[in-house]
Design goal:
alpha/beta; binds iron/sulfur cluster; OB fold (Dihydrolipoamide Acetyltransferase, E2P); 5-stranded mixed β-barrel; Rossmann fold; pyruvate-formate lyase- activating enzyme; binds FE3-S4 cluster; binds S-adenosyl-L-homocysteine; globular; 3 domains
Length: 458
């Protein structure tokens, strides 16, 4: 096959040459790792249709916007991006614009009616139909709305194109049954469906053959793995099984619901060889009153006991969390309970969010919604405290040598390489000419900052 510009000259079996035009796609992904993985599966299907990736909007024949609706801020940004593409479509009528992801699921009618430049709206349960839908669209050019309300028990596997060649996402389950009262995810991702162990192991085997060094087992609530099917392994068994393959250096998983974090899972991490010593346990609030209103199913004393158990079992582990500020009914007093919890638990890092009203969720209509200005002040107060804690924890690492998986050049500094510790901390160090991307190296830490560590290759 000869490539010249956009033209591809291919020779068929009879020796005749045919001229076809290379087609390109571009993707935009918002939201969580599940969406990143869905983009890889959409791109994989385009690749099998002969498309290649481009960074250039003007060159693209298909543009996919894979959307998130977990907070209003994400939605606003995405509506802005969709608006921008209108001009592009006017100059290039052959361009196919595809909206995928959680907003496609939630706002399908509105998007279809109001944004006439969108050609295809594909729901979170329809990803596997993409090849068929694009082929049809290419012929008929008739706009399509392909959004199922419910998922098939298990969607068929489709080809995946992974941008990152070191670290891969492996979905182990889809959907969520928890219905935390603030959260839109169960409405746009459906009920919990676990993939079969065979499917998961097969994917991991392929990844190890391709040289991947790290995998992250993905699910909205990985601790529920297997509960929806008979004769399934539970999450702890799955972890142990994946670890025992001993083919992937680093195994991560997310997200764990604190309520469902069992002693068995903690033991599986403790007794494993390759499962990383990092626990991400979103607490959301340090107030029992709010935790109950959020329908989280635990209180803060349960959470603190859980942390103690984890730290006893896996002493050098890191602990991170998610916190929502300004949930309805959050008084100054209740907010201060969250600050007190942060100080008591000492997280390595906390991802903090302003509560966002999601229509259709119970919390959206709860009384005592908190004004935005109050939420912002609280978020800053919380961040100040957490930043101090994160820095103090990171400073303890100065002088020590840590194992780092080299990911590549630092995004902000071409002189430095970047990688992560097993505890998921970002480390930067000076290039020495020996890059060793994709390998494990030892770095001696000399500088600690709130969100990263700096050091020298040992
Ligand atoms: N399944 C995961 C991730 C859910 S979304 C989990 O249970 O942890 C990631 C984070 O977004 C949540 O942990 C929560 O902190 C935040 N979030 C979800 N809905 C939100 C909302 N309506 N407003 C603000 N933050 C929200
Ligand atoms: Fe949302 Fe709660 Fe499910 Fe996480 S566990 S996705 S926060 S409903
Ligand atoms: Fe967003 Fe959907 Fe993930 S709402 S956080 S992309 S599951």
């Amino acid at each position: 096959m000869i490539e010249s510009g956009n033209n591809v000259i291919a020779t068929d079996l009879k020796g005749n040459t045919q001229k076809s035009v290379q087609k390109f796609y571009k993707t935009y992904t918002y939201g969580c790792q599940m969406n990143e993985n869905d983009t890889e599966r959409l791109a994989g299907q385009l690749k099998s249709l002969g498309f290649a990736e481009t960074d250039n909007n003007e060159q693209a024949d298909v543009i996919i916007i894979n959307t998130c609706c977990v907070r209003e801020s994400a939605e606003k940004k995405i509506y802005g991006k969709i608006g921008e593409l209108k001009r592009l479509k006017a100059t290039n009528p052959n361009l196919l614009i595809v909206i995928a992801g959680c907003m496609a699921q939630k706002d399908r009618e509105k998007l279809f009616k109001k944004a006439s430049h969108i050609d295809l709206i594909i729901g979170t349960h329809n990803v596997h139909q993409f090849t068929e839908l694009v082929t049809k669209l290419d012929k008929s050019r008739e706009r399509v709305l392909a959004v199922w309300d419910q998922a098939e028990r298990l969607a068929p596997n489709v080809p995946t194109i992974r941008k990152n060649k070191i670290s891969a996402w492996v979905p182990i389950m889809y959907g969520c049954n928890n219905f935390c009262t603030y959260c839109i995810v169960p409405y746009v991702r459906g009920r919990e469906r676990s993939r079969t162990v065979e499917d998961i192991i097969q994917e991991i085997d392929e990844l190890s053959e391709q040289g991947f060094k790290e995998i992250t087992l993905l699910g909205q609530n990985v601790n529920s793995y297997g509960k929806d099917a008979d004769n399934q392994l539970d999450f702890a068994d799955l972890l142990t099984k994946v670890d025992s393959l001993n083919t992937i250096e680093r195994i991560r998983y997310m997200t764990s619901h604190p309520r469902d974090m069992t002693d068995k899972v903690i033991a599986a991490v403790k007794n494993s060889r390759n499962i990383c010593e990092h626990f991400h346990l979103p607490i959301q609030s340090g107030s029992d009153t709010l935790l109950e209103k959020m329908n989280r199913g635990y209180n803060q004393s349960y959470y603190r006991d859980l942390v103690q158990k984890i730290r006893q079992a896996v002493p050098n582990s890191s602990l991170t969390t998610d916190i929502i500020v300004g949930f309805p009914g959050e008084t100054e007093e209740l907010f201060e309970e969250t600050l007190a919890l942060l100080k008591a638990v000492e997280f390595d890092a906390a991802y903090t969010f302003l509560y966002s009203q999601r229509s259709g969720t119970p919390a959206a209509t709860m009384p005592d919604q908190i004004p935005l200005a109050v939420k912002k002040v609280r978020l800053n107060r919380l961040a100040d405290i957490q930043n101090e804690i994160s820095l103090a924890i990171n400073k303890r690492l100065v002088g020590s040598t840590v194992e780092v998986l080299v990911e590549g050049e630092s995004k902000n500094n071409a002189e430095k390489l970047m990688g992560r510790t097993r505890t998921n901390k970002i480390v930067l160090w000076d290039k020495t000419g020996d890059e060793r991307i994709g390998q494990l190296v030892q770095v001696k830490i000399s500088v600690a900052q709130t969100w990263l560590l700096k050091g020298q290759l040992v």
